[in-house]
Design goal:
Helix content is 82%, strand content 0%. The chain is mostly helical. The chain has one domain. Helix 2 packs antiparallel against helix 3.
Length: 100
């Protein structure tokens, strides 16, 4: 039983220290993603004029996609083809949704 408790302590403390040692850029991106998510929720709940509601929330989703793709999936270190393909995909997706 003590061995299991010791393993849990090691695993939990290891994960905590890894989180605290996270790169500054990733931490800032993570905070920005949280901010964009909370902003989307507030806009959806409190934006009374529904003229540009869908476009605004979709734009925030596109920004979150770009943040995740370039920072957490390390697309910024990838070949230029993959960067262009990702940006082209998200732009076409955004336009396609707006047309519908």
């Amino acid at each position: 039983m003590a061995y299991v408790r010791f393993n849990l302590v090691v695993i939990i403390s290891s994960n905590l220290f890894n989180f605290l040692k996270m790169k500054k850029e990733l931490f800032i991106t993570w905070i920005l993603l949280l901010f964009l998510t909370i902003t989307s929720a507030f806009i959806a709940n409190y934006y009374t004029n529904g003229d540009y509601l869908v476009q605004l929330i979709l734009l925030l989703a596109v920004l979150k996609f770009i943040g995740v793709a370039f920072n957490f999936m390390e697309l910024k270190k990838a070949h230029a083809f993959w960067k262009i393909a990702t940006i082209a995909f998200i732009v076409l997706f955004f336009i396609f949704i707006l047309i519908l």
